[in-house]
Specification:
single chain, alpha/beta, Beta Polymerase, domain 2, 5 domains, seven-stranded parallel β-sheet, five-stranded mixed β-sheet, 24 helices, 41% helix, globular, binds 2'-deoxyguanosine-5'-triphosphate, binds calcium ion, binds zinc ion
């Protein structure tokens, strides 16, 4: 694996940093966007982009032109994009880290640097403590507080890099499939945080049983997408994939497969609680078996069900294993019957090329049919449906409707303006079968009041991606989720779990609070391209982490049932 070519993750990080530094230096314009799009494309490309660039073929990728390809070649030759090296020499290194603090983007980082002369994290802390940041327009006491809080956390700027589960899952599945197909393999399973469907994962854990562990571990280290073998022993190995994902494989004896799968699925908190409860009953639980402390008898189990049953619990779905009440519920036989992917009957938030989607209405609907949906809401962005385009889209939907075995619903995703108004007239909203209202700008500008106001509209059926967070990029707004849930119940508005890998918004915690308050939620893809319709798998994972049952998810119902449950509009009753 002596492949010296830079990995896609490294290339993408350089383009993102270049874009950030340009913004920090006060530039704007299309090049910044182009670099960010290139970074995203590079990250998503399954093969080595550096290799493609050297062959002159990176240009064939969407969003990558000649200039960007040349920059990739610079990285392969000199280790860094030349423009990036130049800019790094100008911007103080620590100023770059300001951008990663909550509420601070490149623009504010620039002003701290240029207007207040702050160039180090220490100076930033001192200025926040001395309440000097509020002298900058746009920053207030709250920002100072947030910055101090973030700086107080260890690893504020650097932290171990977690990756989005949605980005890593395809590669994880391919790995499991390749291992399962190996002649030496017996059982192969995902474990760890990925099996629990956490939104981000530090590394990807796989456990297996094998007739020949060494052969399986060797095959694992030689998978085509492996670029680095970090560790390789007789029972486990750690490798890094082309995208920079870290994989752990453990090959374990078949007789204790259940014990090991249970152990390596975690979470650590769940395991600790499980062990403590066992100790009180004279049992010692380890990854290899359960020991009766008094007699020393060891029990090993081939399945997880047997492990939990021996300890007096019903089997607990991995998504619930966070020590948040699941052990008590499992002991009492009161675990919820969790919603499943197959329960979804429709997707109620999707896009097409009529707004910023990448695939056509017809193609998206065809994929929805393949997915077995009964209904499908087309909800393009309102600002792209002005000047007669809404009616044109409706005509296209009407023409398509007769030809597909699925009900296409005419929806819209309407913006919630800074003053809480919607950016589409009531007359137009009235023509919609389903209305999603979302905040898309001015995120920190009274988000609670704006969303509450939108829910008062008789036409708004659902609020999209409530907190506007982008995992790893934008912190959630300080929206009062409790008040929003109350208002949702009061007005008959629904909330969604948006399944985009970097949104997953509502979070598991918020979704669970909504369920406990009695609110039904939707699991939507917010898909902007064909493959993105599959993201509902992540949303369902999040729903399960929130203890949601089929009944708690609105779009497990038929469209008729949905119609009966949603709010009444004067024109529709
Ligand atoms: P991650 O990788 O940070 O996204 O999260 P996990 O949960 O995959 O954590 P990881 O990869 O460090 O370990 C996999 C599982 O192994 C973890 O979920 C539970 C188990 N485990 C790891 N460390 C400990 C520990 O110190 N005590 C116990 N009881 N279990 C542990
Ligand atoms: Ca892990
Ligand atoms: Ca691990
Ligand atoms: Zn959307």
């Amino acid at each position: 694996m002596g492949d010296a070519l830079p990995r896609n993750a490294e290339l993408a990080a350089q383009f993102d940093l270049l874009a950030d530094l340009m913004e920090l230096e006060g530039e704007d314009g299309f090049r910044i966007g182009a670099y960010r799009r290139a970074a995203a494309q590079i990250r998503e490309t399954p093969s080595s982009v550096a290799k493609l660039a050297l062959e002159g073929r990176a240009k064939e990728l969407q969003g990558i032109g000649k200039t960007i390809e040349e920059k990739i070649v610079e990285v392969t030759r000199d280790g860094e994009i030349h423009a990036l090296s130049k800019r790094k020499a100008v911007v103080p290194a620590e100023v770059t880290s300001f951008m990663r603090l909550p509420g601070l983007g490149p623009k504010t980082a620039r002003r701290l640097w240029k207007e207040l002369g702050i160039t180090t994290v220490e100076q930033l802390r001192a200025a926040a403590e001395a309440q000097q940041l509020r002298t900058l327009g746009g920053l207030g006491p709250k920002s100072e507080e947030k910055i101090l809080e973030a700086l107080a956390k260890p690893q504020a700027a650097e932290g171990p890099r977690r990756v989005l589960l949605g980005n890593a899952l395809p590669r994880l599945r391919a790995t499991v499939e390749a291992l399962a197909a190996h002649p030496a393999a017996d059982k192969v399973s995902i474990a760890g945080s990925a099996r629990r469907f956490r939104e981000t994962v530090r590394d990807l854990d796989v456990i297996a049983t094998a007739s020949d562990p060494k052969a399986l571990l060797d095959a694992f280290c030689a998978l085509p997408w492996v670029v680095e073998v970090a560790a390789h022993g007789p029972t486990k190995a750690t490798v890094v994939s082309q995208e920079g994902f870290r994989f752990d494989l453990r090959v374990v004896p078949p007789e204790s497969y259940g014990n090991l799968l249970q152990h390596f699925t975690g979470s650590k908190a769940h395991n600790v609680a499980l062990r403590e409860a066992a100790v009180r009953r004279g049992l010692s639980v380890s990854e290899y078996g359960i020991t009766e402390v008094e007699s020393g008898t060891v029990h090993t189990f081939a399945t997880e069900e047997e492990v939990y049953a021996f300890l007096g619990y019903a089997w607990i779905a991995p998504e619930l294993r966070e020590d948040l009440g699941e052990l008590d519920a499992a002991r009492r036989g009161e675990l919820p019957r969790l919603v499943e992917l197959a329960d979804l009957r429709g997707d109620m938030h999707t896009h097409t090329t009529w707004s910023d989607g990448k695939d056509t209405l017809e193609a998206m609907v065809a994929r929805a049919v393949e997915k077995g949906y009964e209904y499908y809401v087309v909800s393009d962005h309102s600002q792209r449906l002005r000047d007669g385009r809404l009616e044109q889209q409706d005509a296209e939907i009407d023409a398509l409707s007769g030809r597909v075995p699925l009900r296409i619903l005419k929806g819209v995703e309407v913006n919630i303006r800074a003053n809480g108004e919607l950016d589409m007239s009531d007359d137009e909203l009235e023509t919609r079968d389903w209305v999603v209202a979302s905040v898309h700008h001015g995120f920190d500008n009274s988000p609670t009041e704006r969303v509450l106001a939108a829910m008062e509209s008789p036409y708004v059926d659902c609020i999209g991606h409530l907190t506007s967070r982008r995992i790893g990029k934008r912190a959630p707004t300080e929206i009062d989720v409790e008040r929003v849930i109350e208002k949702a119940l009061e007005t008959g508005t629904f909330l969604e779990i948006n399944s985009q890998p970097d949104r997953l918004d509502l979070t598991d915690v918020h979704a669970r609070a909504a369920r406990e308050a009695g609110l039904k939620l939707l699991v939507d893809s917010d898909g902007h391209q064909l493959a993105a319709l599959d993201y509902v798998e992540l949303g369902i994972g999040q729903a399960r982490r929130a203890w949601l049952t089929k009944d708690d998810v609105l779009n497990t119902r038929t469209w008729k049932q949905v119609e009966r449950l949603r709010k009444r509009r004067a024109a529709r009753t």
